[in-house]
């Protein structure tokens, strides 16, 4: 699998998880403002990889304001960090080419 495909797969899978998290936050926690922003940023990663950094921020904010448990947030943060590492590796490879 090419690196470009890895990013596409990871960012798509992450977007699916974000949509499910948004549904949970809006239906169960009745949190609409932060979760709506998380939905926007988390689902647009495939179109604009820079959104991963913003998503990392919003997940941390949701955790630190009590809308996400530490464990749930950490799972999402791990996903974002993995995506960012892949992007960084690709950028490094491109620079060295």
From TrEMBL:
InterPro entries reported for this sequence: 23S_rRNA-intervening_sequence, 23S_rRNA_IVS_sf
Gene3D superfamilies attached to this UniProt entry: 23S rRNA-intervening sequence
Listed Pfam families: 23S_rRNA_IVP
Domain of life: Bacteria
NCBIfam families reported in the protein's UniProt record: four helix bundle protein (TIGR02436)
Name of the molecule in the record: Four helix bundle protein
